[in-house]
Structure formats: C-alpha cells, structure tokens
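SAMPLE LOG
Freezer: B-3
Tube label: C17
Construct: single chain, 373 aa
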Amino acid sequence: MNVDHVKARLEIILDTPFRYSQIPLQDWPRQTETRNKRNRSGELVDWIEQGGRLSFQLYVEGSQVHVLSVEGALVTESERKLVVLAIDTLRTADRTLSRSVNSDDEQQAASIRDWIEEHLRDSALLGSEPPEQLSGLSALYAKKIPLLLYCEYANKNHVNYNELKKLLDSFFDTDVLLIPLLDKEWLILGPESLIIMDREDEVLEEESVEDALTSLCSGLHTMMSSEWVGDYHVSTYYPMVPAQSLPSVVRKLREAINIGRMQRDGQYIHLPWQLYLDQLLAPIPLADKLTFIEQVFKRVDLFMDAETTQTLESFFELDCNVSETAKKLFIHRNTLLYRLDKFKQETGLDVRSFNQAIHVKLALQLYKVTKRK
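STRUCTURE (predicted):
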C-alpha cells in the first residue's frame, strides 16, 4: 500500500492533516468478539484512540502496525467510519491487484534483471545474447522503447511490482515489460508503436523521434507524480532490440539519470542526447573544476545570486536570443540587457560574444556541480 498516496487522499477528502507512524504489534488491541461477518474474534481492530488521537490501521509488517493518525477532535463519527471504509477498500484493492498480475511475470522480470546486472558487472559480456532460459522470450527480440524510472520515495513506500505494472499498462494502453533493477529503479520496455505515426504508420525522422520520446517521458513523469507521492526521474533511449543491446542501454540510461540528478537540479527528465556536455565534464577532477571557475569568474560569489544564475541559464537555453529570453523570464528586453551588461562589468565577460559565452557556459555547468559537493 502506498502510504503517502493514501495519506494525501484522506487529507484532501477531510481537509485534515494525518500523520504516518508505526505502533508495536503487542500494543495494538484485537477484536474480543465477532462484530460482523467480516471481523472475526482475534483480528486487529481497525482503529484505536490514544491521547486524543485516532490511529487507523493500514497494514501489519513484522512486529509493527503501520498507521495513520489524526487529532480526534477534528474528525466526526461519520468521518471516522469513512476513513475505516476507505482504508479497507484500498486494502481489498491491493489484494485483488496482487492476484491480477501473473506471478510468472515478476519471476521472468527478475531473470532479465539478473542477466542485465551480470553483463554490467563484466563488460566483456556486453553485446552477448541473453541466457538460454530467456532465449524463448519473444519480447526481447522485437524493437522496444526503453524507459528507466527512478523513484525517490520514502522506504515505507516502495512501489509494488503488481501495482506499477497495472498502472503502466493502463497508461500506455498496452502490455509493457516491467523489470525491477536496483533499489528504486524500474526498467520499462514498451512497443515501438508508442512513437509510430498514426496516419502514415511509419517511424518518425530522428529529430522527431527525440521529440516523441521526450513527450513520452514527460507524460510518464506527470502520471507518476499525480498517482504517487514522491519525485520521479525518467530517461529513455532510441528504439532498440533488447536481446542485442539492453545491458549497454541500461548503462546509458543510468548514467543520464545520475548526471541529471547531480547537475540539473529541479529537472526530472534526463535524456542522453541532451547531456553530452554534462557527460564530458563529469570526469574532470574537483580541483580542476574549481580552478577553471575561479579563472573565468574571478568572483565565485556572483553565483550566490539566483537571479544571475537563472538569467544566464535561460539565455543559453534559448541560444542567446535576447527577445526570447526576456519573454521566458517575464521581463522587459531592456531589463535583460541591463543584467547582461552588469554581468559584463563585474566579470569582464560578454555572454553575447560566442567565445566568452562558451567559457561562461562551461563555468556555470561546473559551478552547479561543485556547489553540491
């Protein structure tokens, strides 16, 4: 059960703050008599009241009862019953969902994961065919779109395989291959038809393929952010045949997400073809990065000013176009020119000059990395 998702839904419905916690199993009372056909004697009660707070049972894990609690004075009797009913409905849905996905799917996904990880540990194996037990899996021999999903959620909210599989099948409106990789990492293999033109039924040109893949990632990120509480990072790559190159593609996607998370704060879609510069700068030793920054800027404290950083980033993102940058920043064109002139006076660098703009762009990229060290 996704605790943050349940908590957020209840807070919206009741307009009341809930708190997640755990209570030792021995401290949670049990039914003393049969109250109805569903509740039997000896089962845990649905809720308890302690110190003016109502605690509602979510699920039991080991020796702990996971609960959501709320100030008793803020909840009426009818609302209490509504919370119990809502949690019970979600619990039932979880059990139904667990049965709805064939457990063979998860076992098969685990075998693919083991193959990927083995090849990534031993680079000499990269490019070799899948093991014999996977050779009969036709999905590995058809063109697929690979998407890597990295989920930054609390430990109590690990995404369930069956839940995510059903959600993704519904979102893509097709059966996808879902593979759990490292902790919080999920690999999704979707059919190439996700980016096929409907009218002409042919693959788009490379530039359009990148646009289509970007839109696909954007949609996936939006859906995940709305369905589950947490931060979700997404990367993708060009359509490929998994049996031929899946481990090496996974390496590219992991690198893109790792670099993007480290160097592109506030962004959640990390595409390999947009990170070439970041990949080139990543191996540079920290001391060399700091030296280059000091040589270019002279005064690093300039970049403690968020306005300056935002202005430069937008200016470079829009190909140094003054008018478009001013529109994006919602400022007058003359205001932008004033900021650029002020930067030139303080650093001696004119970002409207190609050669000097390159130095500032590189130093800015390095600065964003070093300030997180």
